[in-house]
Amino acid sequence: MSDEELARRIGDVQVFARVVPEQKLRLVNALKANREIVAMTGDGVNDAPALKAAHIGIAMGGRGTDVAREAASLVLLDDDFSSIVAAVSLGRRIFDNIKKAVAFILAVHVPIAGLSLLPVFFSDWPLLLLPVHIVFLELIIDPSCSLIFEAEQAEANVMQRPPRKPDERLFSARTIVLALLQGLSVLAVCIGVFLLARADHTTEASRALMFTTLVVAFLVIILVNRSWTRSLVAMLRVPNAAFRWVVAGTALLLAIVLFVPGAQRLFHFAPLHVNDLVLSLAAGLTCVLWFEVLKWYERQASPHVAPRSAKEQS
């Protein structure tokens, strides 16, 4: 067969037997010509050319030859094919969690930048965010990226997806747009809370209300971005110890800066009433709920992304 005919007919064949090294290489190249993502496993010298040509070559670490291990991208130390499945799942989980963490970073810095810059354009507005406020917010952002998203479990559909395209970017236009929309939603809600409070509150009280809304919104953004398929309610049942610690620490620090007089003066806040706190909590909780609606719609459109039970995932 010519290479063109082999590439055309290879999809109709399940098993190739008694192949020599150059034929293995032709098979790999024929699959690649059809834009398939090709993994090649092998342990001998005759497998080396195909191992090198495949998108990922996988050599046996125990019984594999030195040539096969050098040609491969991945070496199975236990020579167990099920380890390949575990490696694919882990790799997809890491890829997803990096995207979620970066989307979170982009989303939360939109309101920070917006609230910092607005007084520049409106001379009658006071400073909405001071340096001490930004330091406080960074104490939430940093552990969220390094602990919460890193420890997040794999998505329910992680092994039902087709392989990514080789030229697919880590941060697609969709990821960036969704992150920006989340950030702009929080920015709009915070501005609305500040303007509403400014009508009958002092500048310090209005700033405290707006800041409380912003902190609550950050925690909600963390929660909704922990999964881009599961619902917010479902994610509350998925264990993530780092998330609990971040929420508890944030709540404690926020209570200190809102109710301890010395901390209030440091943050340029004024005491708040219960009704004020309820307004801030409600605004912070609802500002990105549109993302939950989007996830629900995508779950209806793609039933295979529905969450599975822990037993099914194992």
Task: Describe the protein's architecture and organization.
- By secondary structure, this protein is mainly alpha-helical.
- The chain folds into 2 domains: 3-80, HAD superfamily/HAD-like (Rossmann fold); 90-313, Up-down Bundle (Calcium-transporting ATPase, transmembrane domain).
- It is built from 14 helices and 3 strands.
- Strands 1-2-3 form a 3-stranded parallel β-sheet.
- The radius of gyration is 26 Å and the shape is elongated.
- The model is unreliable at 305-314 (pLDDT under 50).
Largest sheet: 3 strands, parallel
Helix count equals: 14
The gross shape turns out to be: elongated
User: What is the CATH class designation of the largest domain?
Assistant: Mainly Alpha
- Uncertain segments of ≥5 residues (pLDDT<50)? 305-314
| Rg over CA atoms | 26 Å
CATH architecture tag of the largest domain? Up-down Bundle
What order do the SSEs take from the amino end to the carboxyl end, as H and E?
A: HHEHEHEHHHHHHHHHH
Whole-number total of structural domains: 2
> What is the first-to-last residue Cα distance?
43 Å
* Category by helix and strand content: mainly alpha
Q: What's the total count of β strands?
A: 3
The largest beta-sheet arranges its strands as: 1-2-3
Q: CATH-wise, what's the superfamily of the largest domain?
A: Calcium-transporting ATPase, transmembrane domain
